[in-house]
Amino acid sequence: MGVYVYGDFDVNTSGYIEEVYSVDEACQRVRFILTTKRRSFIYNRDFGADFSLLFESNGSEEEKNKLAELLCREALAEQKEISVENVTAENIGGGKYRLKMNVVFGELSKVMEVDVS
Fold first, then answer.
1. 24 SS3 class
2. Of 20, 30, 54, 78, which has the most beta carbons under 10 Å away?
3. Across 1-117, where does the E strand assignment appear?
């Protein structure tokens, strides 16, 4: 069961509501999935991401980046038209990591950052 947010809306920099589509919609979907803790969504316990392994890891920065990319890909497995590349994980303190990634949606791509806990 996938959760799809097609034709969603967001607030632009001027404070006005605008429709989000294309690669921006894909980024919004990625943010929604990665910031939802796995097993917390009552209608689909497999929805969301579990970054606990990242917080428990004592590996090098390169190993943490590889682990973060694997965890992102696992969380996004049902999103067949979306993929992520070049994921980096930066510990920003307070029990959070800042993930920076390239989101690929068809032939389009966009770099985005998302904070996960």
1. helix
2. 30
3. 9-11, 17-19, 82-93, 96-105, 108-116
Per-residue pLDDT tens over the stretch 56-93: 989 999 999 999 999 999 999 999 999 999 999 999 99
In DSSP terms, 83 is beta-bridged to: 104
Residue 16: exposure state from Cβ atoms within 10 A (0-12, 13-18, ≥19): exposed
Domain segments of the chain as ranges: 9-116
pLDDT at 44: 86
Residue with tokens 């689909």: 44
Tell me the pTM: 0.81
State the Cα–Cα distance between residues 20 and 10, nearest whole angstrom.
6
**11: amino acid identity, one letter:** V
What is the CATH class of 9-116? Answer: alpha beta
In single-letter form, the type of residue at position 78 comes to E
